Amino acid sequence: MKIAILSNGPGNYSTKRLKEEAILRGHEVSVIKYKECYASIEQNNPTVSYKGKDLGVFDAIIPRIASNMTRYGTAIVRQLEMQGCYTVSSSIAISRSRDKLRSMQLLAKSGIGIPKTVVSRNTTDIDDLLDQVGGTPVVIKLARGTHGNGVVLAETKKAAKSVLQAFYLTNDDGTNILLQEFIEESAGTDIRAFVVGSRVVASMKRQSLDDDFRSNLHKGGEGTIVKLTDEEKKAVVKAAKAMGLNIAGVDLLRSNRGPLVLEVNSSPGFGVEKVTGRNVALAVIEYVELNAKRRNRKDKVGA
Ligand SMILES: Nc1ncnc2c1ncn2[C@@H]1O[C@H](COP(=O)(O)OP(=O)(O)O)[C@@H](O)[C@H]1O
Ligand SMILES: [Mg+2]
């Protein structure tokens, strides 16, 4: 097959691993820097160019869209979808996953456990807002933050109010702010499960090294192998499905009332391979082999 990996970082571990496994399986692979692609939008003739030439035809694309390039990256993916090219992650599902508010709404609607979450545009009802999420300490999140940036723990009502006011200050319509129940029993640890299709192919527990409540590896967290319970496996596969993603990195908290999904990442890193010894890249390539023959399925998420 002719496979394109859309990635701005050809040297990234994940990109290199995908390329390596695809070549081992006998595929022809190109790594395309989507930020250098340009799309020509014309009646009945969507094209994508790269380095002065038409990108040509691929049997499948594997988008690895960075969070700070979501709009441009998904526009390129959309253009390729419109040409009829198979993509393992649809442009609409990638965009959806980048908005924590939209994600929480969808996960909740699908009956998946999530920390109690409220969204608000002002602090006048701060008492009620806090009541709704179980009081302080409370987690406050920017709907479009990543790598643990834009996630704050406010210990007191006063602190919560100040943080909200500071966030609202720079707030335009594109930046929603969430207040979330603090899951204290799992502070500093979470689980990252890598889902491919309807299978969990690898999972790790992440632990923050200092006393940070955020366990992101980007924040210096450390990963160890973990075995998921059947309930947890079900929850993460369901979460990926609810978001319309075939490939997903689902973040999960172990709470006293069972697994709670925090977020579903559409371009999850492959660092979990190093922690677990599982061949995640191969699982992705095999999924592409099995599914690329089909036309892209219609997105049925509806939000
Ligand atoms: N409600 C919560 N209760 C306890 N810990 C949380 C909560 N929300 C987030 N965290 C911690 O903060 C980290 C980052 O939050 P997350 O929502 O995944 O944002 P990001 O997209 O920046 O990774 C999580 O991995 C988890 O360790
Ligand atoms: Mg996260």
How are the SSEs ordered, and which strands pair?
Layout: E1 2-6, H1 13-24, E2 28-32, E3 37-40, E4 47-50, E5 53-54, E6 60-63, H2 70-82, E7 86-87, H3 91-97, H4 100-109, E8 117-119, H5 126-132, E9 138-142, E10 151-154, H6 157-169, E11 177-181, E12 189-196, E13 199-207, E14 222-225, H7 230-242, E15 247-255, E16 258-265, H8 271-276, H9 280-291
Magnesium ion binds near residues 251 and 263.
Write a structural description:
With 303 residues, the chain is an alpha+beta fold. It has three domains: 2-89, 3-Layer(aba) Sandwich (Rossmann fold); 116-182, ATP-grasp fold, A domain (Dna Ligase, domain 1); 186-291, D-amino Acid Aminotransferase, Chain A, domain 1, CATH 3.30.470. 31% of the residues lie in helices and 27% in strands. It has helices spanning 13-24, 70-82, 91-97, 100-109, 126-132, 157-169, 230-242, 271-276, 280-291; strands at 2-6, 28-32, 37-40, 47-50, 53-54, 60-63, 86-87, 117-119, 138-142, 151-154, 177-181, 189-196, 199-207, 222-225, 247-255, 258-265. The strands form four sheets. Strands 14-13-12-15-16 form a five-stranded antiparallel sheet. The protein has a four-stranded parallel sheet with strand order 2-1-6-7, sandwiched between helices. Helix 1 crosses helix 9 and helix 2 runs antiparallel to helix 3. The longest helix is centred in the first third of the chain and has 13 residues, at 70-82. The chain starts with a strand and ends in a 12-residue tail after the last helix. The chain binds adenosine-5'-diphosphate and magnesium ion (MG). Magnesium ion (MG) is lined by residues 216, 251, 263.
